[in-house]
Specification:
Strand 7, helix 7 and strand 8 form a beta-alpha-beta unit. Strands 1, 2, 3, 4, 5 and 6 form a six-stranded mixed sheet that branches. It is globular, with a radius of gyration of 27 Å. It folds into four domains: 150 residues, 3-Layer(aba) Sandwich (Mannitol-specific EII, Chain A); 123 residues, Response regulator (Rossmann fold); 178 residues, no CATH class; 160 residues, no CATH class. It is an alpha/beta fold.
Length: 639
């Protein structure tokens, strides 16, 4: 379906104004109603806000594409608005939004909104196209610009022919976890750059609507190289024996020229699926990190949901009733503790299950889950024999990690062993062989190694529990500082996962130090922008004030745009402030029973006033250091 066919003059507002994201959405919903695409404004708005709660649709580069698929949509439609002054839409790049399209899709199986999203995302990659829309002086001109661009882009695509050799010179696959904007932006960037460089290319997209423009065996056979720009697993077995480049989807968007040059110059490694399973150019470290993050991303909802409910149980309980039963003394507290405990109990098995699934695909999930449960339960041959002499010793977080990776490679081994099974018995592998043999083997392995890993886990917990004085303050400083090194990257995640794992062993002080360190970076940026105004351009300074809220909500990523723009001054400042907050949290003996929540879970913190003081001191220190490290802008540049 064409973009222009879904957009009428009644649904366009040029040179609009709005004070914030909610006002923008209200105006866009009204425009959608004007176009007679929705029957119930409130119902449709609720669906749009539900989608925003899953992740912002402000895709960056000054663009937002809010959308919803709901029963209140009577016909597929678009609404559009330009905002010359810009508005904060919580975009991925932290910058204001100037151009907004809203999509309404009926609640049917056709997924109209995904097709329109893909087209819009590709067109909006063109800077000239965006500028033309923003400068349109009438609604008729706005519609004509879209119509011309769409006809030019997609009619030409249909006419693209392979090169003289009968195939495409370069193939590519783009994919992101949500499968909407970045998938298609990477596709567009690669296609545009290939056209400029004179290379023929075909790009497969792995989006929310499934695989589009799939690469055929004939395409793959004739291709010189395949580029995989993806942040999630894609089907790789088909590329066995071909030169393959594997990068993040962001590199497909921002570095298409470099990738294409590497592809045509023969600098890509040959991919061997049976040998590595991770990609021709994927290092062992990146492979480990990708598998681990797959487990962590699936684990976090259980950690956060269960952990905060457990924290609420302590908040609503009365310690004086029975100190030994704190958290379960009242019916309300007992309810939250039971529900939260159930959710929290899935944390480690979910982690190992999805690590295994990342390695061996779906057959690895059950095997990894069981391995994690056995590791967490601490089962050994001794206590299984019921002699009553050996108690279970949980191998905890370390054992769970091992279980996930061991389970994944057990299933990978089973897949190789079963590769010669006749096709008539193919259905037995995922339903019988992999789960039965895989669970039996991981069970044997974990029961065998649990005593040793459990001893290490117990020793670490005892060592942490025995730390006091300067050693514990140093631990808090290290963990707090790690939260600011990359603000959502490997160091940050390592510290956060360490903190959440410590909760299972009553390491409330560790979790407190971790969250304090993670709250500092955005607040430090906001403080610097408030008291050192001439260190930031005006638009950056205005956006920085939102970081007060983001920091208080424990959203470290709010500082990322400022760290990316000036890493050698912003990051060291944030590290110093976060380390100070973590160290002071330990010094004040603060404890946190919730793994997330920021200021909203302060009532559950041990010594809450001292905890707030630690965060305040760390934030002020980071902001002041940043103010001294950053150079003042010249007067006109700061405006």
């Amino acid at each position: 379906m064409k973009i222009a066919a879904l957009l009428s003059k009644n649904s366009i507002l040029l040179n609009g104004k709005a004070s914030g994201k909610m006002e923008v959405i209200d105006q866009m919903v009204s425009l959608m109603k004007n176009g007679n695409h929705i029957s119930d404004e409130e119902s449709y708005k609720k669906a749009v806000l539900n989608r925003e709660s899953e992740g912002t649709t402000g895709i960056g580069e000054g663009i937002a594409i809010p959308h919803a698929k709901t029963d209140s949509v009577v016909s597929p439609g678009l609404a559009a608005m330009t905002l010359p002054e810009g508005v904060d839409f919580e975009s991925l790049d932290g910058q204001p939004v100037y151009l907004i399209f809203m999509i309404a899709a009926p609640n049917s199986e056709e997924n109209v909104h995904l097709d329109v999203l893909s087209r819009l995302s590709m067109l909006l990659m063109d800077t000239s196209f965006r500028e033309q829309l923003l400068n349109a002086e009438s609604k008729e001109e706005f519609l004509n610009i879209i119509d011309r661009a769409e006809m030019e882009k997609f009619e030409k695509e249909d006419e693209i022919e392979p090169d003289k050799a009968g195939g495409f010179q370069i193939l590519a696959v783009t994919a992101c976890p949500t499968g909407i904007a970045h998938t298609y932006m990477a596709q567009e960037a690669l296609e545009q750059q290939a056209a400029r460089m004179g290379y023929s290319i075909k790009v497969e997209t792995n989006g929310s609507g499934g695989v589009k423009n799939p690469l055929t065996p004939e395409d793959i056979k004739g291709a010189q190289c395949i580029i995989i720009a993806a942040d999630k697993n894609v089907e790789m077995a088909r590329f066995d024996g071909k030169p393959v480049i594997q990068v993040k989807v962001s590199e497909g968007i921002h570095k298409p020229e470099m990738l294409l040059e590497k592809a045509v110059k023969g600098q890509a490694g040959v991919y061997h699926h049976e040998n590595d399973g991770g990609g021709a150019e994927e290092s062992a470290g990146r492979g480990f990190y990708k598998h681990l993050m797959n487990g962590v991303s699936h684990m976090l909802p259980f950690v956060i949901g269960g952990g905060i409910l457990i924290a609420l149980a302590f908040l609503f309980d009365d310690y004086q009733i029975n100190p030994a039963n704190f958290g379960m003394n009242t019916p309300v507290a007992a309810f939250f503790k039971m529900i939260g405990g159930q959710a929290f109990g899935f944390m480690l098995p979910i982690l190992s299950g999805y690590i295994a699934m990342s390695i061996a695909d779906r057959p690895g999930l059950a095997v990894g889950f069981v391995g994690g449960a056995i590791a967490n339960g601490g089962f050994t041959f001794g206590n299984l024999m019921n002699y009553g002499e050996v108690s279970p010793v949980s191998s905890g977080f370390i054992g769970t990690l091992l279980a996930g990776f061991i389970a994944g490679y057990i299933v990978r081994g089973l897949q190789k062993l079963c590769s010669g099974i006749p096709k008539s018995l193919e259905g037995m592998k995922p339903m019988l062989i992999y789960p039965v043999a895989g669970i039996a083997v991981i069970g044997f392995v974990m029961v065998l190694i649990n005593p040793f890993v459990g001893a290490i886990n117990t020793g670490m917990n005892n060592a942490l529990a025995s730390m006091g004085g300067t050693s514990k303050i140093l631990l808090g400083a290290v963990l707090g500082g790690m939260m600011s090194i990359d603000m959502g990257g490997p160091f940050n995640k390592a510290a956060y996962v360490f903190g959440t794992a410590a909760l299972a062993n009553n390491g409330f002080d560790i979790m407190a130090a971790v969250m304090a360190g993670g709250m500092v970076p955005p607040i430090a940026v906001a403080i610097c922008a408030t008291f050192f105004k001439n260190r930031f351009p005006e638009k950056e300074r205005q956006s920085a004030y939102v970081n007060y809220i983001m920091g208080l909500a424990f959203i470290s990523e709010g500082a990322i745009p400022y760290a990316a723009a000036d890493p050698f001054r912003v990051i060291p400042s944030c590290i110093a402030g976060s380390a100070a907050a973590g160290a002071l949290s330990m010094l004040f003996q603060c404890g946190l029973r919730a793994p997330h929540g920021g200021i909203f879970v302060i009532p559950t913190v041990t010594h809450p006033l001292q905890y707030l003081l630690a965060i305040a001191i760390g934030s002020v220190a980071g902001g002041v250091i940043m103010g001294f490290l950053k150079k003042p802008l010249i007067e006109n540049e700061g405006r």
